[in-house]
Fold each of these.
Amino acid sequence: MARDRRGRLIVPRLLSCAAAMVVAGLAVAAGADRAGHPLVDRGPFALSRFANNPDAAGVAPLRIGMLTSLAVAQTRSGDGDASAKTFAAASALGWRDPAVQAWAAGQALASGQPEIASLRAEALLRGDPDGDLAVAVMTAIAADRDARISFMDRMAQEPTLASTALRTIPRFAEDALDDGVALVETAMASGVRLDAASAALAGSRMAQRDLPAAMSLQVALYGIGGLNDFGFWARTFEAVSASDDARNPFVWTRSETTGAQLESIAGGDGQARLAVSGLAGRPEHLAGIITIVGQERFELAWQASRAGNGGPDLTLDATCAQPAAAIENGRLAGNASGWTRTVSVPTRCKAVQIRVFAPGNGGNSRWLANPRVTPLD
């Protein structure tokens, strides 16, 4: 049986991640098979009756839902040859069953036919876009360079397909997330335009799962941003006034606990500034941004308005965002350019949140500008 570029069996892998769902009644979820006959989970031909018993399935009515359930049971029992024959028989009854589409896509990939695999993947995404089989097939497409390119051609012709495919990427297995990002990079390089809402949703879901992968997806979708210049993706503070629904971890967003007024303005030197007013007169964190720091030590630097004691009105500190944990923030140091502090990051920390902090003392109208992250090690 054919294998992908990582040496994994293609067709069984397409089904294994969703085999339990299929056997439990993937066709039942649709309510009927292609002939319109209802498929119920009771009686002598109930799917659950032969989910793990291929022999029992052999006497069931010849319907596509029954055959695909038999094929999945055969796959789970390790009988790949029998499973392939059963899937072939099921495909002769129609192509609407998601398991048949997944099988056909795997067969095409195994046979070096990326164009056919892309067509089958497209059909599956149209029929069952949020199913586990769609995720499995798109994982296989993303892992195959020729299939990625072919699928991009389909996306260019059908713009809505791009947004549907993008929804599957945050659900890829951890070792396949890089392939998902490569799929998006190929799409953007090919001129495919993704729906803004779908792109934002995919980024948000990826961030909930894996922040470094989410940063890679952010760059694939929107470019390098300010990473090379500032160590952050965002160049300005414009998002601090955005609604909660528009939150993106890689732009500056307001803290959910502050009641202060935050605004992005241009300073006299042309630098973007975070302007703060309406403070409650107590120490509080006002805003934050996520960045990925590969080094164990880095320097935070910024400029800020001065408090009455000569110190900064606003400061920056850091905390580990994934996994949630405290990290060591060094003492504040002032220089001609502004303020700095050294931050030490534990090796298990995958992503860091940089936060704007307002000390209790200071004026009611404050500003912070030119934040930067500079690796030290």
Note: The chain has 14 helices and twelve strands.
Amino acid sequence: MPKYNKEEAIKTIQGLEATEIFVHTPEEQATLLENFKKTTIEQELKSRIAKVYDDVDADFTTITGLQKPADVKTYKYWPEVVKQFKEESETAKKEVEKLKVGGSPDLLKEIEALRKASIEKDNDWKAKYDKMQSDLAQKDVKNILDASTRSLKFANMPKPVLDTFIDNAKSKLAAKGKIVDGQLVFMDADGNPRINKETFKPYTAEELMAIELDPIIDKINQKPGAGTKPPEVKKDKDGKDDIDVAIPVNVQSKLELTKFLIETAGLPYNTPKFNLAFDKYSKNLPL
């Protein structure tokens, strides 16, 4: 969200078509955002997390045939079940070792087969439990990323295009996100938490989603990405505005063209340069 001094704010307000405008001090804005977080985002997160735990219960019930009691928490019940299975497996192994002493050759073969089956079952349960834990953590990460976009206002664009940008950003951040002590932390290439150099704290989901989605966020005087030099508008032979952009051959749809113009060519969405380039190069492209 842009920050203005008084003169800039007055100039911006005069250029708006709205008949009513809300003006907030930084303290009032912080209060509004905190209230929105408590009344909307946190409630939504609670609902989504409850759905995740219901899914985990259903998956474990399918695998084990057991039904979790309604008054026991998911994260307490299933680890205890796995622990019980492991203890039963260990007990079975000890019984097998006892039977080996003085047994016949055939009996020893049967015992060895039972031992291997017990080990395989134990390993299988451990792998399934580890996967469940990993899937649960990833669902928590994605739910938090979903909620982090609610405070962002995006430029007016087709919903398929907007959804593609958001999904790509979520997938990129989710791959580097992990839950540490109940908090979502994003790791860098070395496995260390990514630190916001302005706050000297780990980046929040809201901060990184705003960075990833910056090209499509609705704001005044959008700037192209760092290192990008957007093409300039020129006049064609008829004196009309024209713009030249090197479009790759793999851009085969209007959706791909939109992404290329914003992310690579450095043309913010719905700006005069973007519209000029889009109109020129999208004529024969499918959606």
Note: The CA atoms of residues 247 and 257 lie 8 Å apart.
Amino acid sequence: MSRQTRIRIRIALTSTFPTLRTVPLCCLLAAVSLIPWDMLLALPVALAVHAAVNFARLRPGLSVVNSGRPD
């Protein structure tokens, strides 16, 4: 695995931490029946999709200088 790929993985995972901090709040709300328990089951899926989208968005693209577009 290249260094750039490891960096992309690290950035994608760390960007999910703010969303991950909502897990205790969701557990509390589910415990007092303000949200359905199914919400907690959907949370890991949402976190995985969030990390995958961020990983895909961080892929190296064409630079502005060498994009091949005329000025």
Note: The two ends are 36 Å apart (CA to CA).
